[in-house]
Amino acid sequence: MKKLVSTAFASFALFCLSTAALAAQPIKIGALFAVTGPASFLGEPERNTAQMVVDEINKAGGVKGRKLELITYDTGGDATKAVQLANKLVKNDQVVAIIGPSTTGDSMAIIPIVEKAQVPLISCAAGSKITEPVKKWVFKTAQNDGLAVAKIYEQLKKEKKTKVAILTVSDGFGASGREQLKAQAAHYGIQILSDDTYGPKDTDMTAQLAKIRGSQAQALICWGTNPGPAVIARNAKQLGLSIPVYMSHGVSSKKFIELAGDAAEGIRLPSGKVLVADLLPKNDKQRASLLAFIKDYQNHFKAEGDHFGGHAWDAVMLLKGAIERGGDTPAGIRNALEATRNFPGIGGVFSYSAKDHAGLTKDAFTLVEVRKKDWVLVK
Amino acid sequence: MELLNQVTQFVISGLATGSIYALIGLSFAIIFNSTGIINFAQGEFVMLGGVLTIFSLNVLHLPLIAAILVAVAVTTVIGLVFERLAIRPLKNATPLMLIIITIGASILIRGLVMLLWGKDTQALPAFSGTDPISVAGATLLPQHLWIFGVTVLVIIGCRLFFNHTISGKAMRACSFNRRAANLVGISVGRMVLFSFVISAAVGALAGVIIAPLTMTAYDVGVMLGLKGFCAAIMGGMGSGLGTVLGGLILGTLESLGAGLISSGYKDAIAFFILLLILFIRPQGLFKKGETERV
């Protein structure tokens, strides 16, 4: 009898302990970012932001009383490493969802793994092929390049400019932009008169620009990330190129204005709204999220929050919403993610559906112009 | 007419880029001429020149001239330390081993600069404004004139030094025959050290004057170094003027290739011509073939 009582007591105690442990068990989320390597300008702010947001969610009591645990690995922008680390997250760490990777290459490489393991992935990379065609378990937060192209073409059409020259960088980003520029041109009644490229490390583009100056083009669209576009802006000023110059969202940061100096004046580009959050009209849906993110990032890292951090902010917040609505199982999270509608984030207002795992429209971009070393909205 | 205008612009742009290659090529040739080593860390000296100037300007708040002097001086010291620590201690090393060491050093320098100053590209303000100057229907920037000017000065300086000073002659003697130079009482070790010091200084100077045009970051040295190396090869790794012409030809070909044929194949065109030269005239474009005496 005495033995029975003690066993009952012991098992009761154990039961209590285990439920207590269960309640305290955090929800594990995996994160893969290219914190080092050539894409570190993406990965570093993304990691910072993801950790910042998770810490804050936990400080405010977690999701439905449970803390989030963010397990972050650095892919170094290397697809092979990304695959190994994704396997590690799925098999060893047993995460319920993964955010990142930072680059399109890394994301494409790990898609087969998450599809097989049936773990939802929210990629922070921009390539449209990540979610086209739609994969059951893959979502993304970064705006598609195609949306930026559409934003530029829309403006050109409004100004009745139909002949353009394009100058794109010969890397993945430029190739994707070039593809989109060519694919969408006909739809907006635009004719591409000259199609040139430059190398990512080139230091002089006057040859290409002299050729464009001699053509009938009414606008130049240049697709690249720093420092190439800054060189192009300076060369264009040197040559006295008189047609309007449009850049891509790849240079939508103050760094571009700093590098191009006076030559940046008058250049237009499609940008996510982070850049011009304080200029947005009061009724903009994203305004509250944007201002909160910028203030938060400023407090934590003494630097201006950018789009890249924004992609991670969106990924964590979308995940938080999905866990609240769909529970902590991978399948539940996936279904809740797909059902997300009108979520005002940093990159845009997200509405996922069974047919659209990118979730944004071209209104995610706003067209800005450089004036007096600062951005103004193009009306 | 339009085409003529364009071609003028291509040539002027090409010459401007080419003189950058020429200057970097020269600093390759200086070390090669006295040691027989191809210093693949040369591009890193160029990068250090630019990065250190920007650092002295923005963080130490020095005036431009002082910042440039500091940058060149510090890079020169780095060149000296590099020779002392990595080249000197290896007795009887083959040139191939030394070349591999310079590659290692270049990776090390690049990594350290990345850790110390970050990965961002930075721009140096132009020395005398950015108002374009018009020449025969084409335009160039005041900074291009600085580059032309400094290149000419460096060539003249090298000429005078190597042909008319005792140290310069001694350095040339080392490149012809180390052993004989040693026998006549030239301290070969000191001459090698000298060559690293001079070439680090020239490299840094090149880095400083091109930084306002090309901007600078921890990794600009790789491509610039490669192009400078091409210029030096075209010039036969020797005679000052040959390397300069090599650089100018390379720059002009790139620019004409990009403008007239296809910008996508710009580098391919330049490197194809480099290969042709290596096949047809391995001794360089402007050098007479050397005959080995037996």
From TrEMBL, chain A:
Protein name per Swiss-Prot or TrEMBL: ABC transporter substrate-binding protein
PANTHER family linked: BLR7848 PROTEIN, LEUCINE-SPECIFIC-BINDING PROTEIN
Record-linked Gene3D superfamilies: 3.40.50.2300
Keywords carried by this UniProt record: Amino-acid transport, Signal, Transport
Segments forming domain Leucine-binding protein: 26-371
Annotated signal peptide: 1-23
Pfam families: Peripla_BP_6
Organism of this sequence: Geomonas anaerohicana
Automatic annotation (TrEMBL), chain B:
Membrane-spanning residues: 20-41, 61-82, 94-117, 144-162, 183-211, 231-256, 268-286
Main localisation: membrane
Domain of life of the organism encoding this protein: Bacteria
Record key words, sorted: Amino-acid transport, Cell membrane, Membrane, Transmembrane, Transmembrane helix, Transport
Subcellular location(s) per record: Cell membrane
Record keyword Hydrolase present: no
Topology versus the membrane: Multi-pass membrane protein
InterPro entries: ABC_transp_permease, BCAA_transport_permease
Family indicated by similarity: Belongs to the binding-protein-dependent transport system permease family. LivHM subfamily.
Identification of the protein by name: Branched-chain amino acid ABC transporter permease
Protein source organism: Geomonas anaerohicana
